[in-house]
Amino acid sequence: MYKLCHLSTKNISSLTFYLLNTTSTDNSAKENTLCNINAGINFALFGICTISLILTCWKFNSITVLNIRVRPTAISNILWIFYFSILGIRSMILGIAYIDNGHILEENTVIPKILFPTENVFKILEVLFLSWALEYQRKHRSRGFIQDELEQFNDRTDESSKSFRLSKKVLKTTYNIFTAQAVLCLASLAVFLLENKKDKIEYLYWTFHGCVWSLCISCIVLMFVIVLHRTIDEGPSILTKVFLFFGVVLTLPADIPLFIWKQCMFQGLLLPGPVCYITAQALLIIAVVVFMAVLMREFHRLKEEAQWNVIDQAESYYNITESM
Question: Which spans are transmembrane here (predicted)?
Fold first, then answer.
């Protein structure tokens, strides 16, 4: 049975969380196979994230109007770009950790000390940017482009009203809550890594994962808010909401650590914990593809209206300058 006290922060000899070790020493071939499969899945995820990142930057983050590239608020996908980047880097780190069944980690005391906190920092940032991207979707894409522009205009005209200030404060608070949760995750990770007493390591480990899971719960809540929001004529389609729902759900199994899959789930069944963990990692590939589908559908839904809006603004500016 795996013990958390093995992760003494002054003497980390291997990334036990990452390696698909079994309790029997006779299963080295099986261990190698599982580790190689997991390394392949993580490198495949890195490739999918890289492709998604390039496509988003190149085609789905701005529009061309009068030979000029512009990025209206509803079109911008900067947060998704950061999400794909962070998830890709994290998957590459995990792929390196798995690639040789951990031999390089067992022989080197420096690499594990770098990889373990680095991977977890990227995990926190991954969930944070996913929550920010979902909040951006809720704020700027719950309606049609023109409806969103009209609401922003009304907000500017009613800027002095008490209700406007309150709603704006609540909106800022929503982003601040996610940021505070991420900072709490980073702080708990730092305390866990700096702790030397073995009797406290397990408690601090669960505190750290509890903070991460609280951020995951925020993503789930946001997802339900978006999905259950009444669809207006020009808002996101039901199919887009279904895609978004499944995309978020597919990311959740990978948030469960390996040793929980190994020791607490599927005991005595045909699917051992490591296989379930590999499946959870593979689901992230599908999640990225689904998120890209959502991103592309929303871009094409808002693109034409955004182009005409930019043209109208350019014509208005031209008329004003002519009248002067």
Answer: 39-58, 78-99, 114-134, 175-194, 206-226, 238-260, 272-295
